[in-house]
Amino acid sequence: MTSALATGSRIPTRKDRLINGDNRASGERFGRPPGDVSALVSGQHLCALYQNQDERRRLTAAVIRGALAAGDRVIYVTPGPSDVALALLEAGGIETGRPVRGGQLLVHSFGEIYGDLASTDLAQLVATFQAALSQSLAAGFPGLRITGEMGGSSWPAGSLEGLVRWERMVSQMLGEVGIAAICQYDQRQLDEPATTVIAAEHSGVATSGQRLPLALFIASTPPPALQVEGELDLTNGPVLARVIRARLAASPQLRVDLGAVAFADVGSLREIYQIAVGLPAGSRITLANVTEPVRRVLDLAGFRADAVVIES
Fold first, then answer.
1. Which domain holds residue 248?
2. Does residue 131 sit in the same domain as residue 249?
3. Which residues contact 98 (CB under 8 A, 6 or more apart)?
């Protein structure tokens, strides 16, 4: 295959594949540390390199799943139709219906998000994503993530220098605004020197991680309702608290559906009641569809708060 962005020419080899689990040796190969896409932090800018559609599907699904596990909004930038992008996620094990309906998963083209590449400067980029983050917070999401396919953007063939300038500007913007991003590249379009140059403009090389998250925090309708799936314990209790606080900042009335929670420890449930104690008058957290295991823990713990209502 002819390289679209290259400083030389070569055939990619298996050892260059970065999206194959927690492949630390691959990350170090391009001079950057590995970065788990399921555990992003604000301002982080990762480079993801794939060599086939299966790797791309697994990577993208891991990115979206990580956002749902954090309760964040995620923007998926795709070169093709949105229904094709959603089908890719579904094939990767992501149920997209509820996140899309709840405004947690947004699918856009490169131009819709970034505008005209030739005229966009840092100030415009910062303003665009400050507005996007503000909209996400106002909608009840604690954070914003973005991932997209760089091969679908309008880079002139061989325009490595222009691409590097763009990635450098994006890194600066992410640090200023406080959102996380993962840029996806088809490595079959890159030779090794070009890959190294592109990776150097990122804080790390993406890996898809080794473990699935214990719980997902999915925005549901009507907003700002929340549906929790999986298990809650000391590892994700603080995440639950972060998500609930963000949802309550958008509306004083919050319905939390626990119907898909198979287990919750005392500490994670205590987070809900500690938040409730500090709520202003008129605020309420309604716990809906409480499963029997969760109800038993609540009964044994004896938690009480006027602002918490458990639906019968």
1. 215-310
2. no
3. 104, 218, 219, 220, 227
3-state secondary structure (DSSP) of residue 77: strand
What is the Cα–Cα distance from 209 to 123, expressed in whole angstroms? 34
Read off the pTM: 0.87
H helices of 185-265, where? Answer: 192-200, 237-250
Q: At what angle do helices 266-277 and 292-301 cross, to 10 degrees?
A: 60
Q: Tell me how far apart the alpha carbons of residues 286 and 59 are, in angstroms, rounded to a whole number.
A: 35
pLDDT tens-digit series, residues 49-59: 899 989 989 98
pLDDT at 7: 38
Is residue 258 classed as helix, strand or coil in its secondary structure?
strand
With CA atoms as reference, report the closest residue to 180 among 73, 298, 304, 55: 73
Please state, rounded to an integer, the average pLDDT across all residues of the chain.
85
Count how many domains the chain has. 2
- What are the phi and psi torsion angles at 6 (to 5°)? -155, 150
Burial label, 79 (beta-carbon count in 10 A; 0-12, 13-18, 19+): middle
Q: Is residue 148 helix, strand or coil?
A: strand
Same domain, yes or no, for 59 and 123? yes
> How far, in whole angstroms, is CA 71 from its chain's centroid?
9
Question: 223 and 143, same structural domain?
Answer: no
Tokens of 149: 């396919």
| pLDDT tens per residue across span 62-89 | 999 999 999 999 999 988 889 999 999 9
End-to-end CA distance of the chain: 62
Same domain, 277 and 202: no
